[in-house]
Design a protein that fits this description.
The protein is of the alpha+beta class. The chain folds into 2 domains: 167 residues, Jelly Rolls (Sandwich), CATH 2.60.120.280; 104 residues, Homeodomain-like (Arc Repressor Mutant, subunit A, Orthogonal Bundle), CATH 1.10.10.60. It has 11 helices and 12 strands. The strands form 3 sheets. Strands 2, 3, 5, 6, 7, 8, 9 and 10 form an 8-stranded antiparallel β-sheet that branches. The protein has a two-stranded parallel sheet with strand order 1-4. Helix 3 runs antiparallel to helix 4. The radius of gyration is 26 Å and the shape is elongated.
């Protein structure tokens, strides 16, 4: 397989989109341009930080596509063979860093951890603001602005590396909630039977709590009261949580349409599912899925194979 090995600190200094550079890094800006294509497979000799302002700039590694919609921050370490796939009106801010600069900074900040090889995640506002400020300052000349750009680039590097430290210690899927299983201690036979019935039938959208109450020999009033007393939950809340947990696993772990997820989980419609996500998490179902789809930190190198006398990452 053919590939290109690029030294961006050398190559990008000669291109018109390069705005500013020093011995440690280089800043460039790509104005909105209609794009619909894929780059050749290539690897870099530098660390790359890319802010996707508009359009999409997905990353492909080992035949796996990592989506990068607008607002994404992409980090790529040296010697990772990869492809960029762009679509739409693409606008980006691009930083490259000399490896020795990043290694020295990382050793001072996080000496006992490994630098991520690849990271794709929503850009924090402070990092986006710093990169946009750098572009504005770089479009003007002067010694004071040169010193400010050196300071901003250093702050950007520190904020980015600390972002990886925080993100890697967060759960992979923070929205996955644990299934509610009330303690069986002190639960009567009728309520235990009702819990089993709900767990086995929550995917049906026509469940009637009144019918379950009758099946366990209680009126709806006494059933609701005893259920709440013995489990600390209302029957309706327990049923909703069962459905929401199942829906979240499908929403964040599959590409099923929202209507199909809602139907499988007993929620009836995509609108009901989205309203439930909005009231519980403050975001619609679609926004939860989009946010989750571009939050990756790869701490292990992709699979390698030998090409000539050197190791290359397999794409």
């Amino acid at each position: 397989m053919s590939f290109q090995r690029l030294d961006y600190l050398e190559v990008w200094r000669k291109l018109p989109i390069a705005l500013w550079h020093n011995q440690d890094c280089l800043l460039s800006y790509g104005p909105p341009t209609e794009c619909n294509g894929i780059t050749p497979s290539h690897m870099d000799d530098v660390y790359m930080l890319l802010l996707v302002c508009q359009g999409k700039a997905d990353v492909l590694i080992n035949n796996t596509c990592y989506p990068a919609p607008p607002g994404s921050l992409i980090w790529m370490s040296p010697d990772i063979l990869h492809v960029h796939r762009a679509a739409g009106q693409l606008e980006f801010i691009f930083m490259v860093f000399a490896p020795q600069y990043i290694h020295q900074l990382w050793q001072r900040l996080l000496p006992h951890e490994q630098i991520p090889h690849v990271a794709i995640m929503p850009a924090p506002k402070i990092i986006e603001a710093t990169m946009r400020r750098m572009v504005q300052e770089a479009m003007h000349q002067g010694m004071a602005r040169e010193q400010l750009l050196v300071l901003l680039s250093h702050l950007l590097s520190i904020d980015t590396l600390r972002l990886f430290q925080r993100a890697r210690h967060q759960p992979q899927h923070p929205l996955f909630t644990t299934e509610i299983i009330p303690s069986t201690e002190g639960i009567s036979a009728p309520i235990a039977a009702a819990l089993t019935r709900l767990r086995n039938t929550y995917t049906k959208d026509d469940i009637q709590l009144k019918q379950i109450a009758m099946e366990v020999g209680l009126s709806l009033f006494h059933f609701t009261r005893r259920f709440k007393h013995e489990t600390s939950l209302t029957p309706g809340y327990y049923l909703r949580q069962l459905r929401l947990n199942a829906a979240l696993h499908l929403l964040l772990g599959t590409h099923l349409p929202l209507d199909a997820i809602a139907e499988r989980c007993g929620l009836g419609s995509a609108r009901h599912l989205s309203d439930l996500c909005q009231s519980t998490f403050g975001q619609s179902a679609l926004k939860l899925r989009q946010a989750n789809e571009h939050n990756y930190i790869l701490n292990e190198l992709p699979a390698q194979k030998i090409v000539g006398n050197e190791q290359r990452n397999v794409l």
